[in-house]
């Protein structure tokens, strides 16, 4: 009888959920962190990346050997580069040139072609350029910002995992918002299980620049975003996010990126306002892809 070993694609999801130990939450609250950096390409974006390609294949919209295009600030690009390598696609990724060197190197390591726009042009220009390239016949844009297969991945996997891992005791879900796929899909599932669960979304405070999360101009707001699925939107400063990120590494051994620090900072702020709650937040990636930016320097 032959043994059926898993492939790397089978390793996406089923990430650990751990409690904070030394950073104490007030008011007898429990803060739990979903370690999405444990995914094979290192972030929560592994889930929608694989979902968008697999479901597009199932519908006959793309075929191995074709070219895929995506605008990304980093994590989705790395995840898509991995998924494209697994399934045999060419991958063209467009991103602002101020993203960390580790992110750029990871994308090209998986064989993706990297196209950069300026920091001033930002993700808005990256998204426009992706559509221009598609119109010119250079490939197909997966478009994480409007693709329902993005939140669907979290509805099918992240939400059910959290419900099972907390044995249905979760009372609050806190997530940074970029494309909003994580919060949309997870909210949909959790609200079906218990409408009383409060969904808290985090966005950068005005003037703050936190990799992976945005305050979108109205014209660029992701079309997958449904405001009704988020009970509360909280502004997080870059300083609070970075300070909490460093505290997580030094006091909890949780080595993560800035948006993850923002998520925990938001969870701790929430814990000051509630009692006896089980608050779950997303640690969306690992800290090693931010080292060149200096955010971990003493």
Automatic annotation (TrEMBL):
Enzyme superclass (EC): transferase
Biological or metabolic pathway of the protein: Amino-acid biosynthesis; L-cysteine biosynthesis; L-cysteine from L-serine: step 2/2
Coiled-coil positions: none
EC number(s) on file: 2.5.1.47
Residues where N6-(pyridoxal phosphate)lysine is found: 45
Any one of the GO BP annotations: cysteine biosynthetic process from serine
Tree of life domain: Bacteria
Family annotation (SUPFAM superfamilies): Tryptophan synthase beta subunit-like PLP-dependent enzymes (SSF53686)
InterPro entries listed in its UniProt record: Cys_synth, Cys_Synth/Cystath_Beta-Synth, CysM, P-phosphate_BS, TrpB-like_PALP, TrpB-like_PALP_sf
UniProt keyword annotation of Amino-acid biosynthesis present: yes
CDD domains: CBS_like
Keywords in alphabetical order: Amino-acid biosynthesis, Cysteine biosynthesis, Pyridoxal phosphate, Transferase
Record-listed pyridoxal 5'-phosphate binding positions: 75, 178-182, 259
Pfam families to which the protein is assigned, alphabetical: PALP
GO MF terms held by the record: cysteine synthase activity
Location of the Tryptophan synthase beta chain-like PALP domain: 9-285
This protein's record includes keyword Nucleotidyltransferase: no
Reaction equation(s) it catalyzes: O-acetyl-L-serine + hydrogen sulfide = L-cysteine + acetate
Cofactor or coenzyme needed: pyridoxal 5'-phosphate
Similarity field: Belongs to the cysteine synthase/cystathionine beta-synthase family.
Stored PANTHER family: CYSTATHIONINE BETA-SYNTHASE
Protein name, per record: Cysteine synthase
């Amino acid at each position: 009888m032959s043994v059926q070993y898993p492939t790397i694609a089978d390793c996406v999801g089923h990430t650990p959920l751990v409690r904070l130990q030394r950073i104490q939450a007030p008011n007898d609250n429990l803060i739990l962190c979903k370690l999405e950096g444990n995914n094979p390409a290192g972030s929560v974006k592994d889930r929608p990346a694989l979902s968008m390609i697999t479901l597009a294949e199932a519908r006959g919209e793309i075929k191995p050997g074709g070219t895929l295009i995506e605008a990304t600030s980093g994590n989705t690009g790395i995840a898509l580069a991995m998924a494209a390598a697994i399934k045999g696609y060419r991958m063209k990724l467009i991103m602002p040139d101020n993203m960390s060197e580790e992110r750029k190197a990871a994308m090209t390591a998986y064989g993706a072609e990297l196209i950069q726009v300026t920091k001033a042009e930002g993700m808005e220009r990256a998204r426009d350029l992706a559509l221009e390239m598609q119109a010119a016949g250079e490939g197909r844009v997966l478009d994480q910002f409007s693709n329902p297969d993005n939140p669907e991945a979290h509805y099918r996997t992240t939400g059910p995992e959290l419900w099972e891992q907390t044995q249905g005791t979760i009372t609050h879900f806190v997530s940074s918002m970029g494309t909003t796929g994580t919060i949309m899909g997870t909210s949909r599932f959790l609200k079906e299980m218990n409408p009383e669960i409060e969904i808290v979304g985090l966005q950068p405070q005005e003037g703050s620049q936190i990799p992976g999360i945005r305050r979108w101009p109205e014209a660029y707001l992701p079309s997958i975003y449904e405001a009704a699925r988020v009970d509360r939107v909280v502004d997080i400063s870059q300083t609070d996010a970075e300070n909490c990120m460093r505290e997580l590494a030094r006091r909890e051994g949780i080595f993560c990126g800035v948006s993850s620090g923002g998520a925990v900072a938001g969870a701790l702020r929430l814990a000051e306002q509630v009692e006896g709650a089980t608050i779950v937040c997303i640690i969306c990636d690992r800290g090693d892809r931010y080292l060149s930016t200096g955010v971990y320097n003493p």
